[in-house]
UniProtKB/TrEMBL annotation:
PANTHER family: PEPTIDASE S12 (PTHR43343), PROTEASE DO-LIKE 8, CHLOROPLASTIC (PTHR43343:SF3)
Gene3D superfamilies for this protein: Trypsin-like serine proteases
Keywords (A to Z) from UniProt: Hydrolase, Membrane, Protease, Transmembrane, Transmembrane helix
Stated name of the protein: Peptidase S1
Transmembrane regions listed in the UniProt entry: 47-69
Family as reported in the entry's similarity comment: Belongs to the peptidase S1C family.
Region (Disordered): 1-35
Organism: Nostocoides vanveenii
This protein's record includes keyword Iron: no
Pfam families with a match to the protein in the record: Trypsin_2 (PF13365)
Compositional bias ranges of the Low complexity kind: 15-31
Record's keyword annotation contains Transmembrane helix: yes
Length: 295
C-alpha cells in the first residue's frame, strides 16, 4: 500500500457536503501569502458619551449667550426695579446729612470764647477759642494789646478774667491764661493750611453778635498786608464776611478744624465794616505758642 497510499493522500479533495477545514490560527498567512486584514469593531454604545459631551457644550454656549445678551428695551422703570434697596437707603441717608457749615460749627462751638477788654474809657470786643487741654485761649494780639483788664466768656456761660501768657506781635497772635475754667474744657482741633477754593467758615462776634458764623472760600494764600501794628505776611485770604468783633476768632475748614486766626479785613475805604476780603494767620504760626502741633 505504501506508494499508492501516499498518492491517494496527495490527490484527495473535499467531497460535497464534507465539513469545512478548521480556521487558520491567528497570525497565519492567507493561501496567497498575504496577512489577513483586521477589522476593528466598536461596542454598540461606545458613541453615547461623545454625544452627551457635545450636547453639554451646546447648552453651555447657549447659556452664555443668554447671560450676556443686552435687553432689547431697558427703561427707567426697569432700572429702578433692579436697584438694590441698600443703594436707595444710602442715597436717603446722604440726603439727611447736615450741611458742612453746620458740622463745622457744631465741632467748634464748645471751644468758642468771647473776649472783652478794658483800658481807660475804651472797651474792646474780640473772639478767641480754647486751643489746648489746659484751657489756653488763642486770639489775635491786637484784641488784647494795651488792655488793662481782660474778661472772657466761654460757650457754656462761664465768665472769668484772663492774663496774657504770650504775645507774638509779628504774627498778630496772643495766648491767654484764664483765671477759671469751665466745667468741661473742649479744645479745638488744629489743622494745616488748605488750598485755594476750599470752603472756610469764620466764627466770632461781629458787631457784638456773639458766636456768629459766616461762610466763604479761600481766595488766596501767602498774602502780605500793612496794618496799624506793622506788616503781616503769609496770610490766608478769604471771602467769608468778617467785621469788628471777629478778630481773634477761628477760621475753620469743612471738618470744623481751625486752619487760621482771623486777623484783619481789607479796608480801602477806611470804613470799619466788611467789604468782601478778610485775612487770617495760618494756624501753623501759632502751634508753638499753644504747644499743639497742627494736624
Amino acid at each position: 500500500m505504501g506508494a499508492d497510499s501516499g498518492r491517494a493522500v496527495q490527490t484527495a479533495t473535499r467531497s460535497p457536503g464534507a465539513p469545512s477545514p478548521a480556521a487558520a490560527p491567528a497570525g497565519a498567512s492567507a493561501p496567497d501569502g498575504r496577512m489577513p486584514r483586521a477589522r476593528r469593531i466598536l461596542p454598540r454604545r461606545a458613541w453615547l458619551p461623545w454625544l452627551a459631551l457635545a450636547l453639554v457644550g451646546v447648552l453651555a454656549v447657549a447659556a452664555l449667550v443668554r447671560t450676556f445678551a443686552i435687553p432689547a428695551e431697558y427703561t427707567d422703570a426697569k432700572a429702578r426695579a433692579a436697584a438694590s434697596p441698600m443703594v436707595s437707603k444710602a442715597i436717603a441717608d446722604a440726603g439727611r446729612q447736615p450741611p458742612a457749615a453746620a458740622t463745622a460749627y457744631g465741632k467748634i462751638q464748645p471751644s468758642l470764647v468771647v473776649i472783652t477788654t478794658g483800658g481807660g474809657a475804651e472797651r474792646g470786643l474780640g473772639a478767641g477759642f480754647i486751643a489746648n487741654a489746659d484751657g489756653t485761649i488763642l486770639t489775635a494780639n491786637h484784641v488784647i494789646d494795651g488792655a488793662t483788664r481782660i474778661e472772657v466768656r466761654f460757650a457754656d456761660g462761664t465768665r472769668t478774667t484772663a492774663t496774657v501768657a504770650e504775645a507774638k506781635p509779628e504774627n498778630d497772635l496772643a495766648t491767654l491764661k484764664p483765671a477759671r475754667l469751665p466745667d468741661v474744657v473742649v479744645p479745638a482741633t488744629l489743622a494745616g493750611a488748605e488750598g485755594i477754593g476750599q470752603d472756610v467758615y469764620a466764627v466770632g462776634n461781629p458787631l457784638g453778635l456773639t458766636f456768629s458764623l459766616s461762610a466763604g472760600v479761600i481766595s488766596a494764600t501767602g498774602r502780605a498786608i500793612e496794618t496799624e501794628s506793622g506788616p503781616l505776611t503769609n496770610l490766608i485770604q478769604f471771602d467769608a464776611a468778617v467785621n469788628p468783633g471777629n478778630s481773634g476768632g477761628p477760621l475753620l475748614n469743612r471738618a470744623g478744624n481751625v486752619i487760621g486766626v482771623v486777623t484783619a479785613l481789607a479796608n480801602p475805604s477806611k470804613q470799619p465794616f466788611f467789604v468782601g476780603i478778610g485775612f487770617a494767620v495760618p494756624i501753623a504760626a501759632a502751634g508753638g505758642a499753644v504747644r499743639a502741633a497742627p494736624m
